[in-house]
Amino acid sequence: MSTSLENAIVEVCASVGNEPSRLMDVAREIQARFGCVSAEAIDGIHTHLGVSRPTARSLVSFYSFLSEKPKGRVVIRLCDDPVDRLFGHDRVLKAFSDELGIPVGGTTTDGAFSLERTACIGMSDHAPAALVNETPVTDLSTDKAREIVAELRAHMSPDRLVKKLGDGNNGHPLVRSMVENHIRKAGPIVLTEHHHGEATRKAAAMSPTEVIRSVKAARLRGRGGAGFPTGIKWEMARAAPGPRKFLVCNADEGEPGTFKDRVLLTEFPDRVFAGMTIAGYAIGAREGILYLRAEYAYLRRFLEDVLAQRRAEGLLGKSIAARHSFDFDIRIQMGAGAYVCGEESALLNSCEGLRGDPRNRPPFPAQKGYLGCPTIVNNVETLACVARILDAGPATFSEYGTKQSAGSKLLSISGDVGMAGVYEVPFGVTLRDVLTMADSRETQAVQIGGPSGRMVGPSEFDRTICYDDLATGGAMAVFGPDRNPIEIARLYMEFFEDESCGFCTPCRVGNGLLRRGLDKVLAGRGEPSDLVQFEEVARTMKATSRCGLGQTSFNPVLTTLASFRPLFDSLVKEDPKKFRRSFDLEASTREAARIRTGGAR
Amino acid sequence: MSKPRIATTSLCGCFGCHMSLLDIDERILALAELVEFDKSPINDHKDFTARCAVGLIEGGCANAENVHVLRRFREQCDVLVSVGDCATMGGIPALRNLVPLEECLREAYVDGPSVFNPGGRIPDDPEIPMLLDKVYPAQEVVRIDYHIPGCPPSADTLWKTLTALLGGTSVELPYELIKYD
Questions:
Q1: CATH code at A409-479
Q2: H or E segment at A287?
Q3: pLDDT under 70 in chain B at which residues?
Q4: Which residue of B has its CA nearest to A526?
Q5: What contacts B174, CB < 8 A, 6 or more positions away?
Q6: Which CATH number is A185-398 given?
Q7: How close B23 comes to chain A (CA, Å)?
Q8: Every domain of chain A and the residues it spans
Q9: The predicted structure's pLDDT at residue A452
Q10: Does A588 touch chain B (CB under 8 A)?
Q11: pLDDT digit string (tens) for A369-390?
Q12: CB contact under 8 A, A578 and B142
C-alpha cells in the first residue's frame, strides 16, 4: 500500500475515534481524497478501523457515491428523476457525453472526468439539474452542458461554476450555490419568521412529559408521509428502558420530486435543530444525528456553522437554556447516495456504517434503534413543526388544517407548472386549488409522492391533501396534456428497480417485472393478461416485501392503471392465436444469425 | 363420443418429464382408455392428425424450431399445459441466459478444454435451427393454461392432473406432490 494512502487511512480513522460504526465517514473521506475506495484502501480500513473486509466492501458497493474503481477528479452526476427525464435530461446527457468523449458511467483516460446518472437530487424545480462533485448546477441545457465542460477543463473547480448566487441563504458564504429556494407560498406554520431560541427555552421550562403533551395536543403527525402521531412515538421511546437514547433527523429526502427539506435546511435550519433538541429532551436523548443525504453535501458547512452558533448561545451542548441536565448535541451523518436509506431502519444501518438494508421489525427503532438503543427518527419537516408548536403553542398549530390532519404541509411542486417550487398549504386543501396556485394548465396527471404515492387524473382533482385522502411526503409532479402517463409510471418503476436494496426477492424482482410489463404495454405488445399480472405482482410485493419500499413501490403502476384505464386498454390486445405478442422470433434469433454469418455486432 | 385427443412434445428439455409420464406404469392402460394419443414422442407421430383437447409441453424454447412446434401446439390444442420446470421457468437450460450467446457457442465448439475442432468453426448448417438469444419459458412464447411444477413432476402428479383435466374436475394436488425440497 502506498504510504500516502496508509497515512490518510490512519488519519481519517483517528478522526472518528477509530470507531468501526463510523465506517461510512471513513469511506466517504477516502473516496473524496483518492477518487475511490480501492481494494488496497479496504485492506487498510480493515487493519486500522477493525471492520472486516467484506463489511467494508459491501458498504462501498452499496452506495452510489462510493466506488472501488477510480472515478474522475470531477464527477458529473446528472439527475434522472422522472421530471428531469421529461425536461430534456436525455439531450443534456448526450451533450455532456459528446463533449467529454465518454459514455455514461465512463471516466476520461486522463482521470479528470466521470459522467454518471443519479437518482433524484432534490432539484426537480430546477430540472434538468446535475451535481458536479458536490456543487449543484441547475436548469441545464445542451449549451450550458458544453460550457460547463469547457470551463471545468480550464480550472477543474466545480465551485467556480457558480456565477449567480441563489436567493436567501443560498448566497451565504458557506453555501454559495446557484440553487433558488422557489418558496412560492409561505406560512403561517412552518415557512415563517420565528423567535430564535424561544422554542428551546420554552421547552426547557417544561418537563419532558409536558413537552410530549403539547405535541400530542397539537395533533402533530409525521411529515414523511406515513403520518404516525409524533407524540405517541416519542412516548414509546421515552418509556423504553436504557441509559442511552438517540434522536435522528431524517434529511434523506429521496422521493423523486421532493425538495422541500432542501429549502427547510437552507432557510430554517435553526428551527429544525431546535425541533431536534426539543425532541431529544422529550424522549431523554442526549445525542442527535442529522442524516444528511449526500446530494445535499453543499449545505454541510453551513449547517455545521448553525450548530456551532447554537452551541455558542447555549442552545446546544450542556445545560441547554440554563436548565441543569438538559444536555443534547447534534452531529451530522452524511449519506452516500441510496434512496432506501430514507426508510428509517435502513437509515439507522447507514448511520452505523453498514449497507442501507432495512431491518426486520419489530423491534421498532423506538425500542431498539441506533447502536441498539431506543431511537426516534423524525422527518425534517416534522421537527420544524415541533419547534413551531413549542414556540407558538399547540392551539395555533392545530387550528390550522383539518381535524385528523392538523397544521400545514409543505409541497414540492414541479413538472408542467408555471411556478415550480415549495408551497406551504393547510391540510385539507383540494388538489385543484393547489394546481391553480402553481399555475398549471390542462393538467393530465399528477404524481403525488410519498410512501403511498399515487398517480391521479383530472377526475380526482377535487380530492384533498391530508392523511385520510391524498397522503403525501410532499412531492407533487405535475404532467401536462402531451405526456404519456404510462411512460411516467415506467420512469418511476425504473427508479424503484434501481433503488431496491435487493435484499428481499419480492421487491428486487417485482419492481423489474412491473417495469418490463410497462415496457411491453408501451411497445404495443401487451395483452390484457399483463394488466392482471400487474395486480398480482403488486399483491405479492405488498404482502411479502421487507420494508416500505417494496410494500408501496408498485403504487405508480396500480394508480396509473386505475386513473388511466382506457389508455391501457387501448394499448393491449389479445392475440387471436393465443401467441404472446411480446415474443418476437425475428429479434430473438438476430444474434444467432449474426454469429452464423460472422457479422459485426 | 370419440375420446379426447392428447398431444405431447419435448422442446428444450431432457425428456425426463416424458419418462415421468411413463412412470404411471400400468395406469397407462387406463389412460389409453381415456384418451387418444395424437402427435407425441410416445407413439412417434410426427404431426397432428386432428385437433387435440390437451397439449403437454415439456421444456422451454431455446431455438426457432422449439418456437414453431410450440406455436403449432397452441394452434392445435384447446388446453396447453407446461409440464416441469423447464417449460414453466426455463429450468437448467436457462442457465445459459447468464452468458452471451456467442460466448456459449465458442465455449462449446472452440474454446472448451475438451473440444477438438481444428477448423474452429461453429456449426452453421442451414438445417440447424437458429438459437434464440436466450431460453424462454413456454409461457413467454404462447399463452399457457396450466403449469405443473417439478423436475420432473412425479407420475402421480401428472396422473392426478391429467385425470382431473379430462374429467372436468378441479386439480387438487396434495402438498407431498408439489413439495420439492
A1: 3.10.20.600
A2: strand A287-292
A3: 1, 181
A4: B140
A5: none
A6: 3.40.50.11540
A7: 32
A8: 3-62, 74-163, 185-398, 409-479, 485-571
A9: 57
A10: yes
A11: 999 999 999 999 999 999 999 9
A12: yes
